[in-house]
Design a protein that fits this description.
By secondary structure, the chain is α+β, with helices and mostly antiparallel strands. The protein is built from six helices and four strands, in the order αβαβαββααα. Helix 1 crosses helix 3 and helix 4 packs antiparallel against helix 5.
C-alpha cells in the first residue's frame, strides 16, 4: 500500500466519531447493494455513510476496533457501537424515515432469536437467491462522497 493511501486511510479512520452512522456491507452481493441503494434513496437527512467490507477503509477501521467480519452480515457503526444482523437492519430502518421507523418497530417485536435466524438463513443463501457481482459497486457522483 502506498504511503499516500495509508495516510488517507488513517485520516478517514480518524474522522469517524460516535455520531457517525456507517453501514458496512458486502460489496459484491446484489441483495446488499439493493439494500444500500434503498437506504440512500430514502436517507433525506444524509445520515448514513457506506463502506463495502472489501474496501481498505473497512479493513483498517474494523481491525482497529477489533471487529472481525466474515462477509456474512451487515455491520452498522452508530453511536459508538457496532450492530450486526437484524439489530443493524432494525436500527437502519429506524433512522431512515417515517414509514421505515414504523417497520422497524414491527420487526423489533419479533423475538431476537427468530429475527437473527431468518437473517442468517437469507445471508447464507443470498447469492443463490439474488446473485452476486464480479466487483463492488461504483457509486454515482451524487453519493460518492458518502462512501468511505
Amino acid at each position: 500500500m502506498s504511503f499516500y493511501l495509508q495516510t488517507m486511510l488513517v485520516y478517514m479512520v480518524d474522522q469517524v466519531n460516535d455520531a457517525s452512522n456507517i453501514i458496512f456491507f458486502d460489496g459484491v452481493c446484489n441483495l446488499c447493494n439493493f439494500w444500500v441503494n434503498h437506504v440512500i434513496k430514502n436517507d433525506a437527512d444524509t445520515a448514513f455513510y457506506f463502506s463495502s467490507l472489501q474496501s481498505d477503509f473497512a479493513a483498517s477501521f474494523l481491525e482497529e476496533k477489533g471487529i472481525r467480519h466474515d462477509f456474512e452480515t451487515i455491520i452498522l457503526y452508530s453511536e459508538g457501537r457496532f450492530l450486526t444482523e437484524s439489530d443493524a437492519v432494525v436500527t437502519i430502518l429506524s433512522k431512515n424515515g417515517a414509514v421505515h421507523r414504523l417497520l422497524s418497530k414491527l420487526i423489533g417485536l419479533i423475538p431476537l432469536g427468530l429475527r437473527n435466524g431468518l437473517y442468517r438463513y437469507i445471508a447464507k443463501n443470498r447469492f443463490r437467491f439474488f446473485g452476486k457481482r464480479d466487483r463492488c459497486m461504483v457509486p454515482g457522483e451524487e453519493v460518492k462522497k458518502r462512501f468511505l
